[in-house]
Amino acid sequence: MFRSVDVSGDDKVSKDEYLVAMGQVPERDHKAATMRSVFRQFDVNGDGRIDCKELDEVLRAMGHAMSRDDVNKLIALADKDRNGTLNYEEFIEQIFGPQ
Fold this sequence. Notes:
CATH architecture of the largest domain: Orthogonal Bundle
Strand content: under 5%
Largest sheet: none
CATH topology of the largest domain: Recoverin, domain 1
Helix content: 55-70%
Order of helices and strands: HHHHHH
CATH superfamily of the largest domain: EF-hand
Distance between the termini: 26 Å
Shape: elongated
Radius of gyration: 15 Å
Structural class: mainly alpha
Number of strands: 0
Number of domains: 2
């Protein structure tokens, strides 16, 4: 539960994170915190980008094993800057649609 509230990943629950968890912030802010938390779960090494290996690991853990080629294709679909990884904005747009 603590990790889901600590959306910044600093091992502390800030006042803002607490308020989000308690439902005391606007829905827009709560949605942004949730999206950041989802991104952090996929960004296994915490470098701010999701690469093919990380996406593959998370998909396998969720029971969705795919070929390396298929995982690369998934990244390519959302990779607007064509660097082979997904940053936060690319990931969120692909998962949740344009924000």
